[in-house]
Amino acid sequence: MSPESTGQNEHYLRVFRRGFRTWRGNRPFWAGLFTMVGGLPIAYFPYANMHLGNITLAMSTTAGAGSLIIGVLLITLGLTMWFHHIVRVFAGVAAILLALISIPVANIGGFLIGFLFSLLGGALSISWAPGEPKLDTVDAGTHGQMYKDAGPGTQEPEPEFHSTATVPQQQPEQHDTTVEADGGRHRAG
């Protein structure tokens, strides 16, 4: 092995971190995280018991099942934002609607904690858009130099993507131009 090869000697945590960063950048990560964090208090508080010394306070309400369903749905929508980011707009709208429904149903939306996190996660999911691919440094440098002296009324053209593969030339189709005895119609027509 040569001392110049750095790819094989990298620490596994550095490799994992780089892979996670790439994965996180291709989807609405923070939207899904906030939506899941918002679903937890909505689902938890109706079933929680708080102990103050020898006194037990039960925060259960009559809408405990509704709170559990809303919380589980919000967690599911957060996971959907992560793993099926194609439907991020639907998941964001559904998260906002469930957060609004949690106010009257689930202890004021998990004491406003779950409501605010779910509302923020839904809004982030709706507003997230995939990033555009970066230009190479050579292309960006020549692109900036080429149009540096352009006047204020000129518009920069779209960047061209260069490929090393060549496209084979297509041959035009050969059509039979002879007319059959029945006028070119099929038997069924």
What are the secondary-structure elements, in order, as H or E?
Answer: HHEEHHHHH
Helix content: 40-55%
The counted number of beta strands is 2
- Compute the gyration radius: what is it? 29 Å
Low-confidence stretches: none
N-C termini distance: 73 Å
- Helix tally equals 7
Which structural class do you get from the secondary structure elements?
mainly alpha
Provide the spatial order of strands within the biggest beta sheet.
1-2
Beta strand %: under 5%
Quick structural overview:
Helix content is 52%, strand content 4%.
Can you walk me through this structure?
The chain has helices at residues 12-25, 29-44, 64-83, 88-105, 107-111, 113-127, 137-146; strands spanning 49-52, 55-58. 52% of the residues lie in helices and 4% in strands. It has a two-stranded antiparallel sheet with strand order 1-2. The radius of gyration is 29 Å and the shape is elongated. It has 189 residues and is mainly α. It is built from seven helices and two strands; from the N terminus they run ααββααααα.
Walk me through the topology:
Blueprint: H1 12-25, H2 29-44, E1 49-52, E2 55-58, H3 64-83, H4 88-105, H5 107-111, H6 113-127, H7 137-146
Antiparallel strand pairs: 1-2
Helix pairs in contact: 2-3, 2-4, 2-6, 3-4, 4-6
Name its key features:
two-stranded antiparallel sheet; elongated; mainly alpha; 2 strands; 189 residues; single chain
